[in-house]
Amino acid sequence: MSVSHAFRFARIYLLTTLLAAILGNMTTTGGRSALTYEEEAAWLALLFSHATVMARVEAALADRHGISFSTCEILCRLAKAGPTSVRTLAGELVSVSPSRASRVIQELVNEGHLRRQAVQNDGRISLISLTPSGRRYTAAVQKTFAAVAYEHFVAPLDETDLANMRRIWDKLCLAVEPRDRAGSTNESIHHMSAPEQS
């Protein structure tokens, strides 16, 4: 199984955020103030799917590594992006608030998976990056995530289902702040990929 299959799972997590924004703005943008039965059923189906799959992912990560999906996302982002400031990293996460992200990052530093390094010519800013042991740990975490996401999200669907989900995702990205929201959330999916080899 390719790790890339698991990236598709991240879409359902991000879709809930986008749909919440759309529904929250319905009354202020001239939209209807109530959903039809079919519309509400579709919305609840998406939420239920997200909750069900995320519960499996969270359980696997907790059981095998003692971490949450938020920690997994932080590790995967750093593996892909390289040294990053805490502020930049926290602002790009989709599964955890900036304040919580700072605490998780410090925990990973204390455990030896991350390290801080000062920015040359600006001692006020420090960059966070993976240590050698952190890279090995992240690779194991990504393997767990990919396996569980594939089993509970990708495998039950066929190629048409996945293509339709991508099509729906693209439409929702265009519906919610296309130049800002869509760009950041699309980029976040790619950070769940395997770390680049150094």
Secondary-structure topology with pairs:
Layout: H1 7-24, H2 37-65, H3 69-81, E1 84-85, H4 86-92, H5 98-110, E2 114-119, E3 122-130, H6 132-154, H7 159-175, H8 181-190
Antiparallel strand pairs: 1-3, 2-3
Number of strands: 3
Weakly predicted, low-confidence segments: 1-6, 181-185
Number of helices: 8
Based on secondary structure, the structural category is: mainly alpha
Cross-sheet strand order for the largest sheet: 1-3-2
General form: globular
Give the proportion of residues in helices.
Answer: 55-70%
Describe the biggest sheet?
A: 3 strands, antiparallel
Q: From the structure provided, what is the oligomeric state, counting identical versus distinct chains?
A: single chain
The proportion of strand residues reads 5-15%
Query: How large, in whole angstroms, is the Cα Rg?
Result: 18 Å
SSE order in H/E notation?
HHHEHHEEHHH
